[in-house]
Design goal:
Blueprint lengths: L2 E6 L7 H9 L4 E4 L8 E5 L2 E5 L12 E4 L4 E2 L1 H13 L7 E4 L3 E2 L2 H14 L11 H10 L13 H21 L8 H15 L3 E2 L1 H10 L4 E4 L23 H8 L8 E7 L2 E3 L12 H9 L12 E3 L1 E2 H11 L3 E5 L9 E10 L2 E3 L6 H6 L1 E8 L16 H14 L3 E5 L7 E3 L1 H7 L2
Parallel strand pairs: 1-10, 1-11, 2-5, 2-10, 5-7, 6-8, 7-9, 11-15, 14-16, 15-19
Antiparallel strand pairs: 3-4, 12-13, 16-17, 16-18, 19-20
Helix pairs in contact: 3-4, 5-6
This protein binds inosinic acid.
């Protein structure tokens, strides 16, 4: 029995879907532990591109039980569309379960997300406008009429709660945000229409996981977003409203930290972020444009061009500690194939002081300047490499140096989008065998 967490070490979009997909082959249960349809996992299988927003990537493996965990926020309309898309592509969703304790994104949360972003003006976060923040806000507000997935199962209770919530939301729309109020009908009808399609999948997530663990199951916990979008440890306020870090898996599942055997941290061979916020190694220039075009760095969920920059090993070193990472999966290395030299950020300079870790004071972080080390590029395509030996020397040096700077060895290397374009290194098996 071995329980593994897959976590993003940067600002999301690190290629966690591909790594989860790979690890799911050996898992009995895959749990998505936080977030909602702000996430977008692209998985390429046999040339076919599949986009997942809510459903754990384990769904691509027949027989693997997939749980949308307590820590998620679930938009039932999006969920049904995603189930339809998968089924239309011949992928069964029969093993998909939804934790009753997850909170529900209602249509007024989406309007609230849009209204709040408008109100923030120049200080906007650049949210995905999927209602994520407002849904988590209702969760932490602990109102008697907050809506959890359990509440979808009782039509009367759901309607009562939606009405009570809507009264509050409409007050805000009218008086704070200059936004159109909503009617109960437009809020509740679309949700009620899809409830019968998901009702049978609703479970006590914690009880299900305890049962599976008692049976000796291997559980894979799939995070969404990334460490620096974490509500506490990220670049606040430009963060998401949940806890993507590995500890978030324990909170969501109802398990102690000792239940986690292995943490695989996923990082791109460079850095991207979407939306506003500090980005020390950003390259708003030709280098960044090349990375964006070669890496197809446009959001899976919103289509927005991602901000691109060099690999920040200060970020990786800090994230490795936050998550208790055992091995790094370094993805999209092939995107760097054309560069003659590839700088990596080895430390920050804060007013003349050298920092090894990301400072948690955002004012300080805003003043940090990158200290780069130039590594030689390999300037040849690596997409066909399947072993360490087949990689060019300079690519191997890059990988080794990244592991050394992060303080955690690289265990997997991604050299292309397809499932089989992955090189497994000894550090990966060592981490998995823990
Ligand atoms: P929210 O999660 O929609 O509230 O957005 C908050 C911040 O997190 C914004 O900067 C988003 O661009 C970012 N974000 C949310 N989900 C993802 C993701 O899956 N990948 C990358 N950025 C994300």
């Amino acid at each position: 029995m071995s329980n593994t967490v897959v976590v993003g070490l940067q600002w999301g979009d690190e290629g966690k879907g591909k790594v989860t997909d790979l690890l799911a082959q050996r898992a009995d249960v895959v749990v998505r532990y936080q977030g909602g349809n702000n996430a977008g996992h692209t998985v390429v299988v046999g040339g076919q591109t599949l986009k997942l927003h809510l459903i754990p990537s384990g769904v691509l493996h027949p027989g693997v039980l997939c749980l949308m965990g307590d820590g998620m926020v679930v938009d039932p309309l999006v969920l049904c569309r995603e189930i339809d898309d998968l089924e239309a592509n011949g992928i069964s969703t029969a093993e998909l379960r939804i934790s009753g304790n997850a909170h529900v994104i209602m249509p007024y949360h989406i309007r609230m997300d849009e209204a709040q972003e408008r109100a923030r003006g120049a200080a906007k976060i650049g949210t995905t406008q999927r209602g994520i923040g407002p849904a988590y806000c209702d969760k932490t507000a602990r109102l008697p009429h907050s809506i959890r997935v359990w509440d979808l199962l009782d039509r009367e209770r759901l309607t009562e709660r939606a009405q009570a919530q809507l009264e509050l939301k409409n007050q805000c729309f009218r008086h704070l945000f200059d936004a159109e109020p909503m009617t109960l009908e437009e809020v509740i009808e679309p949700v009620l229409a899809v409830v019968p399609r998901i009702a049978d999948r609703v479970v006590d997530g914690r009880a299900l996981l305890y049962r599976k663990l008692d049976e000796g199951a291997d559980i894979l916990f799939e995070g969404a977003q990334g460490t620096f979008l974490d509500l506490d440890h990220g670049t606040y306020p430009h963060v998401t409203s949940s806890h993507p870090i590995s500890a978030g898996a324990c909170v969501s599942a109802g398990l102690g930290p000792g239940a986690i055997d292995c943490v695989i941290g996923v990082a791109k061979a460079y850095t991207t972020r979407v939306g506003a916020g500090v980005f020390v190694t950003e390259q708003d220039n030709e280098y960044g444009n090349t990375i964006r075009e070669r890496g197809h760095e446009y959001g899976t969920t919103t289509g927005r061009p991602r901000r691109c920059g060099w690999l920040d090993c200060v970020v990786l070193r800090t994230a490795a500690r936050i998550n208790g990472t055992h091995a790094i999966a370094l993805t999209l290395l092939d995107v760097l194939d054309t560069f003659a030299s590839v700088p990596v950020c080895v430390a920050y300079d804060l007013d003349g002081e050298r920092l090894e870790y990301v400072p948690s004071n955002q004012e300080d972080l805003g003043r940090c300047r990158p200290v780069y080390e130039e590594l030689a590029g390999w300037q040849q395509p690596i997409g066909a490499c399947r072993t360490w030996e087949e990689l060019p020397d300079n690519a191997r040096r890059y990988i080794d140096r990244v592991g050394g700077l992060a303080g955690v060895p690289v265990g997997l290397v991604g050299v292309g989008a397809d499932r089989d374009q992955t090189i497994s290194l000894p550090a990966f098996e060592r981490a998995r065998g823990r």
